[in-house]
Amino acid sequence: MAFTINTIDISSNSPALVSLAGRVYEKDYTSLPNSNLPVSMRKDLNVVYSYLTDEELPLDENTFLVKAQDSVFSRLFGPVLKVGSDGIEGTKTDKLYIQWGPRFIPLEFNKEGFFAFDGNKIEAEFGKFNFSGRGEDVALFISIDEEEGQIVLPVAVRFSDWENLLDPKAMNVLSKKKPQEILNALEKVKEKSGAGRINQDFEINLKEDLELNTEYEVVGYYRCKTTYGISFRILINNYPEENTIAGTWAHNSFKPLLATDPEITPENPATLIIKDRKVDDKGVTKIRCMLVLPQQQTSEEELNLDF
Fold first, then answer.
1. In angstroms, what CA-CA distances link 18 with 21, 38, 155, 302?
2. Domains of the chain with CATH codes
3. What is the dihedral of CA 257, 261, 265, 271, to 10 degrees?
4. Do the beta carbons of residue 183 and residue 83 sit within 8 Å?
5. What are the E-state strand segments in 48-120?
6. Structural contact between residues 297 and 11, judged by C-beta atoms closer than 8 angstroms
7. Alpha helices (runs of H) in 248-290, residue ranges in sequence order
8. Are strands 137-145 and 121-129 parallel, antiparallel or unpaired?
9. Taking a C-beta distance cutoff of 8 angstroms, is the pair 286, 278 a contact?
């Protein structure tokens, strides 16, 4: 069997995601759940994700973010290479990370190369890839070996100064001699625009305590590391009584939306509505709910490509 190199096409012009261009979007940014990706693309992405994390690609999280302009598809954003910053998103200063949906996957990076969490070396080099369909940008190409060949994922590289970009060839040389210079040039993980840790007065159960079809004012949110990955806490104003703040875990359907870092503050709150509540045969409460961002209308359902 011939050795093959399969580069995952994560560009805005990807044939596998062509149906994205035929949709009308109600908001500027829409997360595309991994569960709705084409099976072949999801399989290839899982090969890379599993090597980097030793976990399966989470179906309820996202790899891609769709940007729309005037309700029309504009471009697609995928995994991004960034540098951490102490105390932000659980990252560390001068450490390399791949921002993959709501997660920051650490990469060990030194003169010897790139390494995964378990010390296994990663075959990777800098080059160029046409992510937007409008021209090539700098990318880190990560290659994972399989029996039939290699799966290659282009990861977008973000720089702190877009007027002084490093050339990929120069970056490959620097990675072997002065890797710190590459870290100095990359964009750092930024403080999120959520309201931060507003002090809560009560802890509530999102699935059981709130009334149906009632608008609740969400005045902040923040990320939390859990044994199951990154999750979110949301803060609800004037509940269970006036001038108090209730805290609760965000519903899984909110994760892709909150991962886009929307601005939610006491001055610019979001609206939470519980649309439906059911208890299954095992006694588990399930809800259908929606989060409406400030000055934006969001659909009740996540983007579904019906693949």
1. 6, 11, 20, 18
2. 4-185 (no CATH), 202-292 (2.40.50)
3. -10
4. yes
5. 62-69, 72-77, 80-83, 96-100, 103-110, 113-115
6. no
7. 255-258
8. antiparallel
9. yes
Residues 6+ apart with CB under 8 A from 283: none
Q: Which residues contact 18 (CB under 8 A, 6 or more apart)?
A: none
pLDDT of residue 304: 46
Alpha helices in 2-133 (DSSP H): 39-53
How far apart, in Å, do the first and last CA atoms of the chain sit?
30
CA–CA gap between residue 161 and residue 171 (Å, rounded): 15
Q: In what order do the strands lie in the sheet with 62-69?
A: 29-33, 62-69, 72-77
DSSP assignment letter at 182: H
Structure-block tokens of residue 152: 């290659």
* Average of per-residue pLDDT across 57-85: 89
Determine phi and psi for 3, rounding to 5 degrees: -75, 130
**183-232 confidence digits (pLDDT tens):** 999 988 875 544 345 777 788 999 999 999 999 999 999 887 676 777 88
